[in-house]
Structures are given as C-alpha cells and as structure tokens.
Design a protein that fits this description.
The protein has 54 residues and is mainly alpha-helical. Helix content is 94%, strand content 0%. It is flat, with a radius of gyration of 17 Å.
Amino acid sequence: MVQTKKVALYVIIVFVLYTIITSPERAAELVGVGFEGISSAAQGVGEFMTQLVN
C-alpha cells in the first residue's frame, strides 16, 4: 500500500513537471483556476459560518 502511494505521488510530480515544462502558459492558467476555486470555497465556508452565528 505504501509503495502504491509513493508510485502515485511520483507519477503526479512527473506529470506536473512535464506540464510546466511543455506548456507554461497553460500551467499558469491551471494554477490561477485552482486558487480561484480555493478562494471561492473559503468564501463559501465563511458565509456558512456567518449564517450559523446569526
């Protein structure tokens, strides 16, 4: 099980590096989309907590 996790992690790292090297513009777009998603999720959690307090 541990070996499988290590292999999966290495495959993901190689894929990310390959994507960054071959298409830096697309990689930048994906990072931007990721941060927007995280920001939206945090905002949603904040609104939910505000509604719980009220």
